[in-house]
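Backbone shape codes:
===
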Amino acid sequence: MLSLDGNTAPYLQYAHARIRSIFRRAGIGQPTVAPISITHPAEHALALELVNFGAVVADVEQSLEFHRLAGYLHTLAATFSGFYEHCPVLRGQRSTR
């Protein structure tokens, strides 16, 4: 049986599917870079986790310890899950979506 909880591939796949679904329902094709306002602690936590992506990839490239990338992606997925729970992005005000 596949588990959707914990540090598993199905958990990461579910997080990816959830994010793609949000983009699709919001009518967002390719994400664009634009100024954002971070006001909620869950937004702040997600932003801090996303900022680490480049460093994690560079570290994995140097060390060839691919499990570190998997661990980072699990942490990122869990952080996104907390963000999604506390910040209803599709039901929020138009200006903050």
Notes: The chain has one domain: 9-96. The chain has four helices and no strands. The domain at 9-96 is CATH 1.10.730.10 (Isoleucyl-tRNA Synthetase; Domain 1). The chain has a mean pLDDT of 87.
